[in-house]
Amino acid sequence: MATAYERKRLENNSWNDAMMASLNVHAKASLLSASTKRSRDHSKSLKKQQKKKESEAPIVKQQSLRTRGLTPDSDGLPHGVSVSEGLPFPQYVSLRVLAPLPLDDGDVSHSQFVDTLSGITRKPNEEIATVTENEDDDSFDLRSLCLEPHNVKRIGPERVLVVKFLPCEGVKLVAAGYKEGNVGFWNLDCQSEEEDGGVSLFKLHTYSVTSLVFQQNSFSKVITSSYVVLFRLMDVEKMVFDLVYSRDEYEPIHSLPQRPNDEQSLYFGAGEEMFNVWDLRAGKSVFNWKLHKYMIHTIDFNPQNPHLMATSSQDRTACLWDLRTMGAKKPKALATIDYAKAVYSAYFSPSGLSLATTSRDNYIGVLSGANFEDTSMIYHCNNTVRKISSFRYASASWRGVWGWDDSNIFVGNVAKGIGVSQTKGIDVISTKLKRTVKKLQSPLVKDVISRLHCHPLNVGMLAGSTAGGHVYVWTTK
User: Fold this and answer.
1) Is 436 helix (H, G, I), strand (E, B) or coil?
2) Which residues contact 340 (CB under 8 A, 6 or more apart)?
3) H or E stretch at 250
């Protein structure tokens, strides 16, 4: 006999069956299952067809017009814009603005900067001091150099590749070129309490700024060069950054000097080995020579004999040249100094009687004598901490610069080994004693200083820059 619970369960089952039958649920579930199966089968069929078409489609390689030997098509680009191709890394392919850029965009700091340079250009020529020789090598006391907190500024966010003082006595203006194409100007006399007080930053290039040149007879004009060949001229009077020179080819430039008393010509090394002379007035190249086997890092002219030129190169040599005898297709150097590794710099002393070279082999060379035949090698460990790639080491290298006379060379210092803690700063090397005689160090310095410049007219004013974008200015107490 069924229990009351069993009878209730059977009644519930009967009621559920009757309800399902009235709603026709089973039939609808069957239809839904069949539809889902058909949809799944159809999707699989489409995927098979798509795979078959992809396998049958020809493989097309993406190539630029230039690599296929065709003229690049720039239709559709705005006026004054070109595509920069052929760079070593794809992320650096970018649009280059070739049209003139406006200088004033309404920024108050830019207006102050323009007023500062305009005021300098309006001064009579006799008020602008000229370089005077320092006859007494021991006249300047290195102990008087100090770094004050207000003389530290992060002008831009990237690595500084070049730092220069405006060559005018009594004016404390520093210019810096950055890795991402920015050019910054810092007026140290501006006592603004704001973080960016006295700073004007301009985006002039799409790639690293390698050189800054203040025109000799007009400080309102500044020429900048980019790693990917592009030169711009800042003209404060016209309120514009004009285009001076550009090339689409990838030809890295590391130095862009001018000869003393000749502001109509630009001298630069382009690519792996070529040396060029560009006439600003004619707007064309007037000379083109092959001076080294590999890229030229620096070009410098003797301040007392402008025909005498020094070059340093990746080919492990520093060379002396006489521009008056370089008319041949293969110019012959007056002197060649060989090194074990790449030579980062070769600069003449203020008197023009000596030449200082900086090499990756950790030696600073000092050449002197009537024909620079006397050579002294001074050991200075300058690059043992960081392993720098072949593409970037030229821009991150250390360069020794002369002080305000022929007695001292300034060069950034680093720790003597990986993991060694050492306060970073600047080493002062005596050319007479042939060793480091002082270290300019401060807790304010946060990174290795690799670029230096001594103010050519304000004795005791020294600027150093770092990969972190900071600029430090030492002054006398």
Assistant:
1) strand
2) 316, 359, 361
3) none
C-alpha 203/C-alpha 158 separation (Å) is 12
What's the pLDDT tens digit per position in 347-395? 999 999 999 999 988 889 999 998 899 999 998 876 444 444 333 433 4
Structure tokens at 100: 């003139």
CA distance between the termini of the chain:
116
The separation between CA 398 and the C-alpha centre of its own chain, rounded to angstroms, equals 14
- Contacts of residue 357, Cβ cutoff 8 Å, sequence gap at least 6: 312, 318, 337, 339, 343, 345, 346, 364, 365, 367, 400
Structural domains of the chain sorted by starting position, each given as residue range(s) with its CATH number in brackets: 99-123+161-402 (2.130.10.10)
List the one residue out of 244, 292, 301 whose CA is nearest residue 271. Answer: 292
* Cα gap 388→182, rounded to integer Å: 23
| Cα within 13 Å of Cα(405), Cβ side | 17
365 and 373 in contact (C-beta within 8 Å)? no
Distance CA 323, CA 90 (A): 39
* Sequence-separated (6 or more) residues with CB below 8 Å from residue 216: 258, 260, 261, 263
Q: What is the CA radius of gyration of the chain?
A: 33
Which position has the token pair 């008319």?
327
Spatial separation of the C-alpha atoms in residues 138 and 115, rounded to whole Å: 38
Contact 421, 449 (CB under 8 A): no
Structure tokens at 206: 């799409």
pLDDT tens track for 223-259: 998 887 788 888 888 888 888 877 766 667 788 888 9
CB atoms within 10 A of CB 243: 17
Other beta carbons less than 10 A from residue 420's beta carbon: 10
* Cβ atoms < 10 Å from Cβ of 32: 10
pLDDT tens per residue across span 92-133? 444 556 667 777 765 656 777 787 787 776 554 444 444 444
pTM above 0.90, yes or no: no
What is d(CA 84, CA 69) in angstroms, rounded to the nearest whole number? 16
The single-letter code of the amino acid at 153 is K
